[in-house]
Amino acid sequence: MNQKRTLTAAALVMAFSTIATVPAHAAGKEKCYGVAAAGQNDCGNLAGTHSCAGQSTVDNDPGEWKLVAKGSCESMGGMLKAEAKKRYQETKRNS
């Protein structure tokens, strides 16, 4: 019985430790909204109209994002998530 508990505890520790880590390809990067060319977004958009990479249909859509080097987003003309969400919500209210 002790071996079963030990294995369960070890499995839980491994599961929780992997949740907190950043994938290797994303280390040192951040989501940058509004800089992706059509079909070049990295994943789902703010509007929730798709959840996959490569599905953006408009260049520089403020709801689409790409992973960029940390600290370079704003100099590229993009926005971090908080600003992008704020602008998206304002646009939604005004339409």
Briefly say what this structure is.
It holds the Pfam family DUF2282. The protein is of the alpha+beta class.
Blueprint of the fold:
Layout lengths: L1 H19 L8 E5 L31 E5 L11 H14 L1
Antiparallel strand pairs: 1-2
Protein name: DUF2282 domain-containing protein
Keywords: Signal
Pfam family, one: DUF2282
Structure description:
By secondary structure, this protein is of the alpha+beta class. The protein has one domain (27-94). 35% of the residues lie in helices and 11% in strands. The chain has helices at 2-20, 81-94, and strands at residues 29-33, 65-69. Strands 1-2 form a two-stranded antiparallel ribbon.
Strand residue content: 5-15%
Mean pLDDT: 82
**Structural class estimated from helices and strands:** alpha+beta
Weakly predicted, low-confidence segments: 15-22
Work out the helicity level. 25-40%
Q: Output the radius of gyration.
A: 18 Å
**Total number of beta strands:** 2
Estimate the global geometry from the Cα principal axes.
globular
Distance between the termini: 62 Å
Could you give the order of strands across the largest sheet?
A: 1-2
Indicate how many domains the architecture comprises.
1
Order of helices and strands: HEEH
- Helix run count: 2
Biggest beta sheet attributes: 2 strands, antiparallel
Pfam families: DUF2282
Protein name: DUF2282 domain-containing protein
Keywords: Signal
